[in-house]
């Protein structure tokens, strides 16, 4: 064969002959000829085999050139022939290459290989392009993406795989022997590899079905890299592909693995890492897609061949300081993989250990990386390292400390992985399965004492080595004092230094000479030692070099170098020999001790290991315990992952015995009410895992263990915990986790049938029974007799808590709920003679005189609740109870009177007769124990009376009214059934009948409601009833606190009075002034706190009666008691957000609470405004009046607090139109200001707004309002802030306005400064004469122009609120309760009355004088005067009776 096939760069190269023997294509066949030519190949292949390529290459090449026009079937037919030719060629070459080849055969087979591979690769690329081309033009939209319909008749995926495997079989042969010299052309290598890289560009290459195809490509690349010097080109191509195709991370990393493991070519890893290491970090930050691909590729490559990456990892460390966080993640993840797979072995040498420690330090450093993604990724890497048990113990303590610090990270993903890592460290800890800090501390101290007993000498000398060092230093200091003169003398004597080496013979070595010098030093032959050292330094120069490099003698720097060297060498020699001698002596002594008593030495070694183990365990447990408070805070996070991970940590910590995790276990309980189903399920699963899965034992022992666990949760639980535990038990009952055996065990423990049951455990059992009854009422309903016999029996006479918990269980009995539209079922009620009610009456009457038992009132409340819920005639039972308790109170009064009479003897003027009236006893001046006893019993009686009145109201409103509706519905149903006409005409007149029935039902319901209302108004606490008889008594006790000073009695009377007022509007109206008097004048913060809650309930019940007294409610926000302020804040929040009271000007008092020193109150205030902002424009509407009130210096709020409040409130002003309106209104306020402070406040408020072009224009329009105030430095700074902020976010067209505003502001500021300088020189203030700051009480000229017209009715909301609050009493300032107030100057939202707002007119002065007279009269009067509301016409209260189930209800208010 006389031609040579040259692989072309482009197809045109095969048409033009440039060489003598170069193969060229003779002719490009036409489209008609191609089909026949391809069909002729079949016959030629049968006769010639793979050699048929020589004769038919033109036909195959013509298909490539005409591929756009050739039919697909022709292409597929040609592809089939080429694959067969290539497969047969590889079989043929396998035999040919085993024999010796002559030049002709080598050339023929070389051309055949080139031509076949060229056609195979070209056809593969062509068909792949045809297959993928339509998908590039297809519009892919989200999930509607569909696979395109292929035009091929063959399965191209399978054919492609077959072709690639055939190509692999060809290149795996030693085809380099076909070349002369035996080096494969670069063109051939490029042909094959480019085809492989082209195939990789298809995203479908990553699908699982293409695994064999990917493997074939990887092995082809491996062969090319190993045999044909393709390594450098491959690394560059891989980098290029990664930059453009992110999906190639997996396939290319697999190719690298094949090169390293199957073909032993590790250099490709180094080349790849070197290329990535050379890249500029700024390029990474610009190309995010390519950077992600490089990062992921590094990680996968390291995961697959970590040993090959380790020697080159240093080339990547530069990227740890780069800008791209993705690259930092990749490098750190690669280091983590190397740590787990290479550096975690036990047989590491020192160099590898040092490398491991450096990697760990890098990972620790990036826990505090500036980017949250990196911090999160590093924590994930640490999590993998810990779970793989590859964390060295010395690094654990520092790692745990760093991770605990990340628990408060601002990124939720960082917090998530921080908690996961702490949990993993706990699970994989090398110390113990139980990490109780208390137990570990006790064990550590105990074992430490044992170690001291085994080593008594250690107590005397803590560190013998340190003591020896100090002693050696002291010896040297003494010796140095004698050596220094000798060295100086020898240095001056040149004769002695003429032949120093004569002192050392040729046979002496350096060690021998040094030993001689040391002996001379120790034997005080100092001069000989110095001379010998000088000689040694001449003979052995290394002595001076070595010693000087390790010692520093700073104080000798002024001496000659020779002297310095000599003294340093002598010191080093002396100290080293001393230490060596001491170490040898200590070793010999230890060996002697070991030989004499090896058992003792072994025991000491074991004890030391045990003590060290306990010390490390204790340190680990202490660190974990320190993390508990932070993680427990995350239970309240709004982020779902924070809560879920915190729950997992606490469950794991509890299982490992961390006692501090019990805090988190209890804090998890309220999460049972979470709206997130995931959190709720996690809480239930956590408690099930902790408390309902006891290990071992039979069913009864497991049930007992469950009961013990649940009882432990009730011990010491708060009301919040018990309520949440109730919800948890209900969920567990619904899911069937608490079986019948557990319920039975609870009943046995409640009845104390189990030996050793304590009263506390019995009470816990009945609490759990009550909780279980919340899900299944039958738990209690079938055992009422047991509850009454045990819970209300003899034990309850002394154990009132047991009786109260029994009542709570009985309250679970209720009427079953019915579906909407059905008639309600009969109410579940018991006879009034039932043992339950007689037992409750007995217990309450019997224990009423036991004042030391503080649980009587809680029991009484629950007992009255039970009576009203379950008794047929609850009013009769409670009436008898009140009468019996009144007799007990009367007897206590008689006893107190008689005792007081015997004690006083002949005292005269004793008020009252001994008729047993408790009031007469309480009015005595002589307060004895018996008098206190009588007032205590009376307090309980009044508490009972008040609660009965409240329950009677609820009973009438709910139970009686509901029963009337039920009976009416039953009667209507009967009438409907019995009416024959209705049956006949039901289909015809169905709609008319329903309308008539609806109207009739509504009218009947209104009549019933009015009937109930009349009963409440006239027949409960008023009129001729038992409860009404106590009304005067309550009024007397509440209004005469000096005669009845007992705090408990006052508290009970106040609550009872408030409950009476809830029943009747008439009674409420009569005593409202008295109640508000107690709210303001009472010295007891408990009474004030309770009363403010009562006011919230009264607002719901009788809003029209309470509305005039609203200012007095706001006044309690300045109460000296934090509890009163907190309750007031909660009540007002509840009322305002539920639209029960209007938002008035006094809301500024709530704003002041934002800076309250009590964190709870400040949080409540912020929460209120946050919720208020969700109600339309509420915050915007109150802002002008709020600024006016808070900026008034008479209000008593300092400037710093004003700014904190305004900064928070202005965060809710977001709309541009609101900002524009506020800008204009605030500018107008400047004219009405009286002091400099108000200038600064208004300027600060302006600086808090966001500015648009219109807002800037508003500043220009109203510039003269504040122009004269710009001389003030703080005002000027605020306007500079406005300009800077506006310029940053302004549009280009607004920047001109901003620049003009800046010029005007600068001009006024400089003008003001110049005037100030003139004032200083002249000694007088021109501003004062110009009237820029009007004196107090002076009217500005504009005030006469801005008088409002009387007929004007249209005002802003804040104006209306200001007018309504003119007559409200002045709130107390921070200077004291009785401080006199100046008339409050407030701003109005009206533009017409801007100037007169700060005017102090004559009417205000008259009012001030009037108030002073009233204050004087109050001081002279012994009885406290009640505050009076503004006079307003009284109208009929049209509000219907509402049920009292608000969160602020009095029913659960503590006394």
What does this structure look like?
- With 1455 residues, this protein is mainly alpha-helical.
- 67% of the residues lie in helices and 0% in strands.
- The protein is extended, with a radius of gyration of 49 Å.
- The termini are far apart.
- The model is unreliable at 135-147, 458-462, 495-499, 546-564, 903-927, 1318-1426 and 1430-1455 (pLDDT under 50).
Short description:
The protein has 1455 residues and is mainly alpha-helical.
Detail the topology: elements first, then pairings.
Layout: H1 31-48, H2 52-65, H3 72-96, H4 103-137, H5 156-172, H6 186-200, H7 211-227, H8 231-244, H9 249-262, H10 267-278, H11 281-286, H12 288-304, H13 306-309, H14 325-341, H15 350-365, H16 372-387, H17 393-405, H18 412-427, H19 437-454, H20 457-460, H21 464-492, H22 510-522, H23 526-539, H24 542-550, H25 561-596, H26 598-634, H27 640-655, H28 661-668, H29 677-691, H30 699-714, H31 719-734, H32 740-750, H33 759-773, H34 778-781, H35 784-791, H36 794-798, H37 800-810, H38 835-847, H39 856-870, H40 874-904, H41 918-922, H42 929-978, H43 980-984, H44 990-1018, H45 1031-1039, H46 1047-1063, H47 1065-1081, H48 1085-1101, H49 1103-1106, H50 1110-1115, H51 1122-1137, H52 1147-1152, H53 1159-1172, H54 1178-1191, H55 1199-1209, H56 1216-1229, H57 1236-1248, H58 1253-1261, H59 1263-1266, H60 1273-1289, H61 1295-1322, H62 1326-1330, H63 1342-1345, H64 1357-1364, H65 1402-1420
Helix pairs in contact: 1-2, 1-3, 2-3, 2-4, 3-4, 3-5, 4-5, 4-6, 5-7, 6-7, 7-9, 8-10, 8-12, 9-12, 12-14, 14-15, 14-16, 16-18, 17-18, 17-26, 18-27, 19-26, 21-23, 21-25, 22-23, 22-25, 24-25, 25-26, 26-27, 26-28, 27-28, 27-29, 30-32, 30-33, 31-33, 32-33, 33-37, 35-37, 37-39, 38-39, ...
